[in-house]
User: Fold this.
Amino acid sequence: MPSGPRIRTYAYGSHARQIMDVWWHTDGPRRPIVFVIHGGWWSGGDKKYMTSISRSYSQLGYTVVNLDYRLSGDAAWPAQRTDVIAAVNAVRRHAAMFNADPGRYVLLGFSAGGHLATAVGAYGDGRPGLRGVVGISPPVSPLSAFEDGSAFGTKEQQKLRKAAIKLAGGCAPAKCPRVWSSMEVPFHASAGDPPMLTVHSSEEFVPPYQSEMLKESLESVGVRMTVKTMAGTQHSSPLYREPGVAESVQSWITARLGHVVPPAAVPPGR
Assistant:
């Protein structure tokens, strides 16, 4: 009788939050990898909220890594980006164990996790094997979030401003310009970066114009980026569940990673 995917939790560092759930199929050829990164204002959230999304990519036949990372209350930036890179490196190093292809993977991040995914994509001049980055409502421009979160901003925008300050170690842009520059993804576009896709709602508190800034930066160095805007105010996972969004993201990822052999069977309820 065919079995479903193996699902195990591994540590990729010594901190309690440096852990990841790996979903892998033992049958078939080496499979590409989808890394899933949760949101939560950089200060909260948990990989458990990404379980159903992780399952959906496992059912498509991919190896899936659903990871936690140190939050802003644990360590200031760039610890979060460093953790994502460490998790990626750990899985690529042990790819044979997970029947995975270390030369084909994508990052899929939600909200703050989308910021981390795009920040890894624009880290240096590309990363080995990284074929694409997807962000759902990613605040790729913390400097814009800081400005939008003034006294004239919405409650959510004011909360995001405070969250970005906390990520920067409690320091505002004027006092810590180097830290904020490091957090600002559009500042780090380079020719070797992977293609990117982001999705926003037209009226959400992380506005599409943040991604348009990144798109302009990436395209100036010859890297393709698609910004998809949906009507409404939904943010992050609720936006992903809007009709057609998950399907379009899956299609984009499949185009970057290639089709894979379907898993033998995934028992219901796993």
About this structure: Residues 266-270 have pLDDT under 50 and may be disordered.
